[in-house]
Write a structure and sequence with these properties.
Elements (H helix, E strand, L loop, with lengths): L5 H6 L1 H7 L4 H12 L9 H17 L12 H4 L1
Helix pairs in contact: 2-3
């Protein structure tokens, strides 16, 4: 797994939130989004590890949370 900096992880965080399934993963992603607004916030080692995993999953699965392997065209989404 690629280890990314906190800034790199946070750059992709909105996409992680969008791809996270309901439950723990989504709640965790939303809690990080809220915490990052604090000026002095830095993730703990556990948080950083989980954030890295979630961003890696996003790249491995392309942010596609559906079970099909097809790309969604913009025209199809509207």
């Amino acid at each position: 797994m690629t280890t990314r900096t906190v800034d790199e992880l946070l750059f992709h965080w909105r996409a992680v939130i969008g791809a996270a399934p309901k439950g723990f993963a989504r709640n965790f992603a939303l809690s990080i989004q809220k915490a990052r607004g604090r000026a002095d916030w830095q993730p703990s080692a556990k948080q950083l590890s989980l954030m890295n995993s979630m961003v890696s999953d996003l790249f491995m699965h392309g942010g596609n949370t559906e079970d099909d392997d097809e790309f969604k065209l913009i025209e199809d989404v509207r």
